[in-house]
Amino acid sequence: MPTQVEVAELAQAFSTGRVDAIVTPPSTGYNNKAWEYLSSYYDVQAWLPKNIVVVNKRTFDRLISEQQLAAMFAAGAAEARGWAAS
């Protein structure tokens, strides 16, 4: 039966038998040493995080046009790499 467990309580939940499996990002499994409780790992590609860069419009607008174009070109290249990787 599914149950929600807070990350801070994960080790105790395994130790007490409250849970015997998890669906979680790899970082959570690593940080909580899930291998100490589990014998199998399946990469289900459930977490495909996206990154974003936020730029202050006023600051961007103050850049010279060459700098704005360079920033937009770099942003476009980063976006293409990100989508290809995910």
List keywords for this structure.
mainly alpha, 2 domains, 0% strand
Present the secondary structure layout:
Layout lengths: L9 H6 L10 H6 L25 H6 L2 H21 L1
Written account of the structure:
- With 86 residues, this protein is mainly alpha-helical.
- The chain has two domains: 1-47, no CATH class; 48-86, no CATH class.
- The protein is 45% helix and 0% strand.
- It has helices at residues 10-15, 26-31, 57-62, 65-85.
- The chain is elongated.
Brief digest:
By secondary structure, this protein is an all-alpha fold. It is 45% helix and 0% strand.
**Helical content, roughly?**
40-55%
Q: Report low-confidence residues grouped into runs of 5 or more.
A: none
Rg value: 21 Å
What is the makeup of the main sheet? none
How many separate domains make up the residues?
2
Estimate the strand proportion.
under 5%
Overall pLDDT level: 88
- Regarding quaternary structure, what we see is single chain
Strand and helix order: HHHH
**Termini distance?**
31 Å
Query: Total strand count, please?
Result: 0
What structural class is derived from the secondary structure elements?
Answer: mainly alpha
How many alpha or pi helices? 4
Morphology call: elongated
